[in-house]
Amino acid sequence: MERIHLNKIMQQISEFKNLHLGKKLFILSSGPSLAELDLSLLKNKIAMGLNRSTLIYPTPYYQCVFDYRLFDLYQEDYKKVRQLFTLEGRPLGLPLKLLGGEGFSFDLEKGIYSGYTISYFALQAAVYMGFKKIFFLGLDLKHEGPKTHFFGQDPQTVNHEQTEFPKMQKMLSFGANTLASSDVEVYNCSPISTLEGFPKISYQDALAC
Questions:
Q1: For helices 118-128 and 165-179, what crossing angle results, to 10°?
Q2: Where are the domains of the chain?
Q3: What span, in angstroms and rounded, lies between the C-alpha atoms of 201 and 184?
Q4: Closest among 182, 176, 179 to 200, alpha carbons compared
Q5: Exposed, middle or buried: residue 83 (CB in 10 Å: 0-12, 13-18, 19+)?
Q6: I want to staple 66 with a disulfide (CB 3.0 to 4.6 A). Which of 26, 83, 87, 149 is the partner?
């Protein structure tokens, strides 16, 4: 019975391979700068939400979440999205096997790396689905005064600039280097981010691409 169940999951994952080959994707990270954008302009675009982005953009094409705490808080919101990608053991969504923290997976049937941030998880999913232009919105890795996220402050993440952001920057830079010789273009639309590796572009220019 377990073998049949696993085969069924793998078949579902494989259906996303190059599903959007050559298309453009906007990924909604959770940094403070996301609150400054007019996300209604994404109406006719393919958008992938991350974590609590449903609070500001409730109907993304895709959603990525793997934090157990967020499923407890926003499970009803996640049930409304078109397709949710997550890790094994979560209460809903299409589960992917966690291969570890560091690495880059081009084959989601084998599994995915966390990269210590859901933005890195989403990047691997986007590449697997064949997107060739990927634009990160709100990928700040930086707090704006007391604001840790677009919605305000999460007390559990106030120390992330010292603890978690360096690890995230390391892996996102690794992802940029991994994709440098590919035909996938990844851009960061955050005006306040100091993340290196992904070229910066304005939100308006990204929409016009």
A1: 20
A2: 23-208
A3: 15
A4: 176
A5: middle
A6: 87
